[in-house]
Amino acid sequence: MNALPLLRVLLGTCAPLLMTGTVQACNALSFGGGHVDLSIDTWDDGLGDVLVSTWRIAGDANFLEDCDRWSNVAVDVIPTVRNLQYERDVTIDGERYPAFGIVGWPRSPLLIFRYGYGSGGGDGTGAPFDVRSTLNSSGAGVTGYFRWSVVSVAAVSRGGAMEEVPTTDLGSIRHIYPPNPSLTKLESFSVSATLRTKTCTLANATVVLDDAYVLDLPAAGSSSGQRDFNVVMRCNGRYPVSLVLTDANGPGNTGSRLTPTSNATATGVRVELLQEGTPVVLGQRWMLAESQNGSQNIPLAARYYREAGAFGAGVVEGQAIITATYR
């Protein structure tokens, strides 16, 4: 009897081992968001389209961490704002921003927004941001283990008189990492505005000249007895001020010599006003680039001036009005 070899056949199928998953460029949230109350403290008027606050952010610019250093990290920036209405575009530091007023306050300061994206403490990119629509940031050109994504807000002068605004909720802006929406940063915003009114006062000044004699004023066009004096101006801040001198008894006078008052008895002599050694031009404005916050002196001078024609002794008196304009 012949023995048959034991033959064992194993049959089966082979299949590849499949593993699924999502590779993320960033794996953790660095900062989940915060709140900023933009508190505006400025003058109630001024030139339009000028920054009247600092740029503010909601706590921290950071967003994501544990990122692949070399990957582009996209971010969706989604505004859900309220109580804002588009007014016009403004240009600040050479860039054009959509500017928004506050609903219910038609003379409010204007608000502008800016989006910034970067890595760690390194340089980033920034641009004006229109909060009426979503921004999809590609993250291109930025590398590093951390990524920041932030919206900042600032106030701009409307131009002309503005009005105060109580604390007003402006809604929020979300920063979402699309591969993992659980990594979300929420920034919320509110605004208030306190406005200061520009105020300057001018003190009265009485100037008494020493007596003059015939020999002091020998001919028409001669002058004598010059006395320097100051008009004290007090302002509550630093801002441009224009000044003008006018003749109280001759409103249309555009010379430098004042019309005699009803108390004057001398003939052929008037009071002449000077500024920095030069006869003033009554009715002509001059500018102070910036007032002082407090008291400052406006230096002037007065002297006798011999007119043409008859000359007679007596009282010489003139009166001028100085006016400051700062709106």
Radius of gyration: 37 Å
User: What's the total count of β strands?
Assistant: 20
Q: How many domain modules?
A: 2
| Span of the ends, CA to CA | 127 Å
Tell me the β content. Answer: over 45%
Shape: rod-shaped
Which class best fits the helix and strand makeup? mainly beta
Q: In CATH's first tier, which class of the largest domain applies?
A: Mainly Beta
**Tally of helical runs:** 0
> What name does the CATH topology of the largest domain carry?
Immunoglobulin-like
Main sheet strand line-up:
1-3-10-7-8
Major β-sheet profile: 5 strands, antiparallel
CATH architecture of the largest domain: Sandwich
Low-confidence blocks of residues: 1-22
Write the element-wise H/E pattern from the N-terminal end onward.
EEEEEEEEEEEEEEEEEEEE
**Mean pLDDT, rounded to whole units?**
91
Portion of residues in helices? Answer: under 10%
Give an overview of the whole structure.
By secondary structure, this protein is mainly β. The protein folds into two domains: 26-196, Immunoglobulin-like; 200-325, Immunoglobulin-like (Sandwich), CATH 2.60.40. Helices cover 0% and strands 46% of the residues. The protein has no helices and 20 strands. The strands form five sheets. Strands 1-3-10-7-8 form a five-stranded antiparallel beta sheet, with no helix packed on it. It is rod-shaped, with a radius of gyration of 37 Å. Mean pLDDT is 91; it is low at 1-22.
